[in-house]
Amino acid sequence: MVQAWYMDEEADDPRRPHRAEPARPVGLEQLRRLGVLYWKLDADKYENDPELEKIRKERNYSWMDIITICKDQLPNYEEKIKMFFEEHLHLDEEIRYILDGSGYFDVRDREDQWIRISMEKGDMITLPAGIYHRFTLDEKNYVKAMRLFVGDPVWTPYNRPSDHLEARTQYLEFLARTA
């Protein structure tokens, strides 16, 4: 099962866990109230997994590819890692399914505090459009992930502040309704 927690305020190596002290764990229900969805799947059978196909059909995830993030396989690795870790939002959902390796998604809670979500093999997550977030590898420096989209992929990140965007406005309205 996925692990998530509130982060400390340290600004050193983002690949470290950065757990707040005392520990402040975050459960799936709290993530759901932020619009973050989670599934645990069998990554060894992703190519013909009926559970994955069911999720893709129900949520209209029609497009997919696979990305490997590590120094020797991702062109412009250092630049991409910095870009992924820049706080941003998207106009569409961000869907990632970890096929191998591990990393962290950080999301903002209602009070603008960071929650770190530890992702490893078999974890699939959907971040809602309009949520401020970022991604980094953990200290293993390797992840292989499936990226899914509704329709054609749109890769555009909108770095914070982007509160003027409709996706952000709609997300804040969602938070108000689920408070």
From TrEMBL:
Binds either 1 Fe or Ni cation per monomer. Iron-binding promotes an acireductone dioxygenase reaction producing 2-keto-4-methylthiobutyrate, while nickel-binding promotes an acireductone dioxygenase reaction producing 3-(methylsulfanyl)propanoate. Its EC number is 1.13.11.53, 1.13.11.54. It is an enzyme of class 1 (oxidoreductase). Its main location: membrane. Ni(2+) binds at H88, H90, E94, H133. One of its GO terms (cellular component) is nucleus. It comes from the Eukaryota. It is found in: Cell membrane; Cytoplasm; Nucleus. This is Acireductone dioxygenase. The gene is ADI1.
